[in-house]
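Input chain follows. Return structure tokens only.
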Amino acid sequence: MLVSTILDRRPVDREILRLAVPALGALVAEPIFLLADSAMVGHLGVAPLAGLGIASAVLQTIVGLMVFLAYSTTPAVARRLGAGDERGAVSAGVDGCWLALVLGVVLAAGWAAAPFLVGLFGASPDIADQAAQYLSVSMLGLPAMLLVFAATGLLRGLQDTRTPLAVAVAGFAANILLNYVFIYVAGLGIAGSALGTVAAQWGMVLVYAIIVVRHARRVGASLLPHHTGIGRTARSGGWLFLRTVSLRAAMLLAVFVATRLGPDELAAFQVTMTIFATLAFALDALAIAAQALIGKGLGSGDLPSVRAVLRRCVQWGIGAGVVLGAATVALSPFAAGLFTSDPSVAALLPLSLAIIGVGAPLGGYVFVLDGVLIGAGDARYLALTGLANVAVFVPLAVAAAVWGGHDATGLAWLTAAFAFGYLGARAVTLGLRAHGRTWMRAGATV
């Protein structure tokens, strides 16, 4: 009753939650799968779990660099929708899908480079072998991953986050089932985990293809690519690509340092960052709502609503971070057994997981402001300040590697450097921008 009363008084809250709650379900579905995947692979032994950590870092770097396919498509579609041009909105989304297909095919052709990419981390031969098995199979699913990004961005821009939720839940449920069958029943080990993921991803693409075709026919939009539209998406995505490069550079540096700490520490860090990703995906639901609503508001020229969305999303982000962080801290002493049966790895986890929990409110603030500026098309600022944020993190990571120690304390220092040092730098640069008005540019296009 109290929640209903609050929402009745705040229309902007209703809009935020209408988009954020389904987006939350879709986003959490992926890290839940990753948690289940880590748990299944983790029970194969330390080497497969550590190998999964390296392979995941490489794969998520490749895929993460392409996230602009969703993040540039969502505001482009939303701005046109806000300006009353629904046909143009769908056409912008179709162009994003074509760009995703081309990039995905090009990237998948590099599957043979998996052993070389894994070798860059300098892991022991048994860990490197496990990582190469997982990565070489997973790269065959890259076109599917990118198509899902672009199609999801189209639907979010159309203010629809429920359909991506349904597709994500079905896809990741199938993913978990297939992974279990391929890992344990077929006895394929870590390669079976990758195979199950690829199969589920292509199934999701088939569903999205049907949905996109229906939207195009509904508004009379062409399914053929438009040179101008693809070029615009590529240009706006270029800055977001650079912004994502800085994010992945920070993640890769953290994994590199964890590798130097030792195999047990690397395995524990894989679990720690999986928990971080789970929290980040959950908090990112508000960022996605902000992207869609900010883009639509700027497209229609309604600047007061844009400022209201900013203010309320930040409040929701910090509050959600407090709740999720408290739960993570409370569960940190007991969570290790879910991810590994190795006592040495389990002993490393509680302190680092608690640090992730304490830093969650800061993460909520950062992720929401990131979504606001992406929705506004302020990608250039995000890219340039992203480089500065990495520059802050580098000496902190180096200090953790040199003075942290090869134990739970060393892992905790590395986790803190990321959760407070790197995210803290992002909070400063994003906060300074959001409190001004430079990013509030109205119109159907940026």
